[in-house]
Each structure stands twice: as C-alpha cells, then as structure tokens.
Amino acid sequence: MLNRYPLWKNLVIMFVVLFAGLYALPNIYGEDYAVQISATRSGEVTLDTLAQVERTLEQGGIQPIGIEYENSQILVRVDSDDQQLAARELLVSELGINYVVALNLAPATPNWLDGIGGEPLKLGLDLRGGVHFLMEVDMEEALMKIREQMVTTVRDRLRDERVRYRRVEESGNDVVIELRNSEDYQSAVSLLRNQYEGYDFRTDSSQNMITLEMTEQYLQDTRSNAIEQNITILRNRVDELGVAEPVIQRQGQDRIVVELPGIQDTARAKEILGATATLEFRFQDTDNDLQDAIAGRVPFGSRLYDMRGGGQVLLQNRVILTGDHIVDASVGYDESNRPQVNISLDSAGGRLMTQATRGNVGEPMATVFIEFIATGETTDEGRIAFERVEEVVSVATIQAVLGSNFRITGVGSAQDAQNLALLLRAGALIAPIQIVEERTVGPSLGAENVKAGLTAIVAGFVLVLLFMGIYYRAFGLVANLALLTNLVMIVGVMSLVPGATLTMPGMAGIVLTVGMAVDANVIIFERIREELLEGRSPQQAIARGYENAFSTIADANITTLITALILFAVGTGSIKGFAVTLAIGIVTSMFTAIAGTRAVINLVWGRQKRLTKLSI
C-alpha cells in the first residue's frame, strides 16, 4: 500500500516519542530552594553532622521540606528563598570552617524518575539568577614567570656542571648568559645547545655569550596555556564554592567568562575567584645583619621582606620551592589551638624539599605569601596594572628533614587559614586576573525572564495552532499534534544532553523551531493540494506530496543545522545556548514534521481503500 508504515516503523516512532516524553517529565515537578552542606578536606559529613543541622534549623525556627543525607553531603530543602538565605546563615555560623554551605536549587523529581536519570532542564544565568564575571588575564606576568623559571633552571644547570658564569639574566623574553672565559663558554655551549624546547640557541664567541631566544610559537603556546590553566584552576575554585552548573569558558585572546547560576553571595565569589595567591619557601639569611639591611645595606643575594603583623626579615633570593608543587592544603590546629595550614606536595616537590632541608636542620625557613592586587590603573599598552604584594607569613626553625607533608603556622585567623588552604588546594593562578565586568541577575528577575519567555512561547504556539487548524482543517490538527510532540521532544532531549542549558536566547530558539516545523508541514500540505488539483487520487496525492517535499525540507533544515553548529563552535555564553536549542529543535522538528505526521496520516487515512476526499 502507498500509505502504510510497517509495524516496526510505527513502533520505533512511538518509542522515540515516549522516551523523549519520559525524560521531559521531570520539568513538570520543578525545583526546591535548598542548602547544600559538604565537607572541606579537613572536615567530614557524618550522621552526627546531620543531627547537628537538624538541631540548628529547629532552634532557628526553620521548618525544612526535607533533609537528605547522601554521598557524604547533606541537602536541606526549604519553601522559599528567604528561608534558604536564613538557613545558610545559621548553618555557616554553627558548622564553622570545616564545611562548605552553598545555596542550591534541588530538583523535586520523584525517586522513580530520578532513578532512571531523569533531571529537569538546567537553567542559565538569565533565567535562574546569579552572577556573571568577565575576567582579564595578565599575560605579561605569565611570561615573567616563565622567564624566571628559565633563568633559575640555567643557573642551576651551570652550577651542577661547575661552569662559571658572570651573569644569567632576562632580556625581554630571552635569557642572556655571559661566561667567565672561553673555556667556560665552550663548556656551556656543549651543555646547553638544543636542550630547551621553544628557545632558539644563539652564540657570540667574541663576547663569551649565549642567548636563548623564545620562539614566536612558544610565546603563543605559553599565552594559550596560561588561559587554559587559569580556566582549570577557576573551575576547581568554583567546585570549592559548591556552585551547581557553572559556565567557565574562554573569550578572545586573554579573557575568561565565569557564570555562577544561583550564587547570591557575590562578595565571597569575587574574593575566591579573583585571588591570585601562591607560596614560596626561602631560607632566612642569618649570615648578615638585619639592621644593616634595614638601614639600606642589603647584601647581594638576599632581600628584605615585610612580616605579616609587623617587622621585617632578611631572606635569601634562592627559592626552595613554589606553590606549583602543592597538591593539597587543609586547615588544622597546632598544639596551642591556633590555626595552621597542612601542606602536601607532589613527588617532585617532596624531593626538592628533602634536598633543601637535609643540610639545614636547625636553620630558619620562611613562608612567603605572594598576591597580585589590581591597582585600578592601566599600563601603556592599555592593560590592567597589578601590584605584586609579598609578605612573610611565618618563619620557623627546621626541626627535621622535611618531605612531602609539613605545616605552616602563623597564618592569622581561622578564616584566613581556610581561604589560604582553599586557594592553594585549588591551585595558584598561572597569571593574575582582574574582574573587568560584573553583572548580577537576581532570582526575582530570573523568574520574570522565565515567565516572559514562556509567555512568548505559548502565545506563538497558540497562534500557530489556530492558523493550522483553521487553514488545513483535519490535516492541520495532525500538524498541531506534531508541534506539541516536537516541543516535548526538545525539552526531553535537552534534559538528557550533558551540559545543555536553557537561556533566554534558547527560548527564542524554541520559538524559531516551532515556526520551522510549521514550515515543513505547510510545504508538505501544499504539495498534497497541488497533487489533488492535478487530478491524482487522495492516496497518490499523500504519497507524492511527502516524497516531493522531502528534498526541499531537508535542504532548508540542513543548512540551518550547519549554521547552528558553527554558532556553537565559535559562540560563547548565550550564543551557545541558542545554538544548542536550535540544533536540537531542527532534528526533532524534521522527525515530527516528516515521520511523525506521516505515521498519523497513514493510520487515519492510509487504511481507507475507497478514500475520495481529504480534509486539507
């Protein structure tokens, strides 16, 4: 028969529709305001913690909808955003520094649906509310770190091989090495030639000089890596904040976009995300007089540092270890119940610390805290200027050879210790960043955006349904059924796709796909009408109408799909949200407008052997 699908094809279409509908179902149940409690590395969420949370909320007069304990986390559901904020304040003050108390929105999905992976659509910043940061990376500082590391590496290499030099220093992005005599020059050439990838090797035998010139490709790679590493570190810090579904992505050459849906404590977010902190460990210079250095006679190879809390100390220029080797940092308390930060190093860092302290037991070692603070001014190149602030947080005598685990004391208050541990645990930013743009969307404004978007979708949808029903009669009702199915499938697929987020532009994409789905049905129905006018039977008109319209519909949708993929590849933020919705909508609209309507029309009219008239 012309207009009959085999049973298997009808079953496949029915399965796809039911499957998408099942995973669209969680969106009906909505979300609850919630407070999420998780432990820092120095804490642990237990059943005792759960009991403490319940007591605290009861004493504070807050009646939660429910409290869940799962995967070493506690989730408290409440009725409103006011109760959410009040609950968070109570729990932060009660639980202390060993726990992260974060605002969240928890799906109210039934357990049976949650058990098969059903989750509601993830809403973007403009729909849920939260904060948007645009950050700029100081690339010059990243390059300076690379140059400093190279100078230190070359010096250590020459010392290890007992090659004497006059100076090893930076010159722009290059490293210049001046040897003492021609013999040392020849030894250095043999030692350093072709040893450092990313640097061209230049020699000047008349001056006993070697220059390691940074290549343009290495320069570009360094800048790109600085951005990517900063993105990774920012993502780690966001995880520490307990934010659900953040957006962290690159924008342009030296900027990063961070969007934190649901975040209302923006001051805390800015403090943690924008902080550029690391540590350096140096030996104290005990061979020279501190007062002479304070008077201005700083000895060669040493430097005067300010102490946190007042005073100064003379330290050697040689860096024992930097924060790059820190793999974990947690808050603890010493024998006098004062806060301290427990440090764990990677294997290379542990080896360096052991080598440095083996011959210096009984000597004082200082911990230098380094932070980059924006000055509010700009450089000659138009970039944001940063001030490098260094202070010694502790000077402790080395009691024994240190390895991969040790502690630093004298870090200030418990909150200071927690912030320092968080920053070191998440990683030190490769280069300083400055927040150049900040936008906050309140929860009420996000709710208004959702309402406005839904109103637009419903209004457009109803108008299309009325037009199709009136103009194409019975066939128009079939098209309307396909449109409803298409909307359900878009929601279901977006709920399934990892990382898919619905934004205001995404809602615009849904409205657009509704129009495109109607276009497909209009083309098909007009072709059927043309076939009827040419004198073909209703069954032949249906068959030829679908066959002839298919290539036109496919061409139009494929070109639009390519555009959506390009937008997704090169776009950021809201553009990506629009592209995802559009791409999914194109695929589902082709399925419902072609396969879906054909299946219904086949079932209703395809079985009528003596069909003489179509309601079209």
UniProtKB/TrEMBL annotation:
One of its GO terms (molecular function) is protein-transporting ATPase activity. GO terms for cellular component: plasma membrane. Its main location: membrane. Keywords: Cell membrane, Membrane, Protein transport, Translocation, Transmembrane, Transmembrane helix, Transport. The chain crosses the membrane at residues 452-472, 479-500, 506-528, 549-571, 577-605. Residues 2-103 form the SecD export protein N-terminal TM domain. It is a multi-pass membrane protein. It is found in: Cell membrane. Residues 433-594 form the Protein export membrane protein SecD/SecF C-terminal domain. Residues 227-285 form the Protein translocase subunit SecDF P1 domain. InterPro entries: Acrflvin-R, SecD, SecD-TM, SecD/SecF_arch_bac, SecD/SecF_CS, SecD_1st, SecD_SecF_C, SecD_SecF_C_bact. GO terms for biological process: intracellular protein transmembrane transport; protein targeting; protein transport by the Sec complex. The keyword Transport applies. Residues 307-431 form the SecDF P1 head subdomain domain. It comes from the Bacteria. NCBIfam families: 2A0604s01, secD. Part of the Sec protein translocase complex. Interacts with the SecYEG preprotein conducting channel. SecDF uses the proton motive force (PMF) to complete protein translocation after the ATP-dependent function of SecA. Belongs to the SecD/SecF family. SecD subfamily. Forms a complex with SecF. Part of the essential Sec protein translocation apparatus which comprises SecA, SecYEG and auxiliary proteins SecDF-YajC and YidC. This is Protein translocase subunit SecD. It comes from Aliidiomarina iranensis.
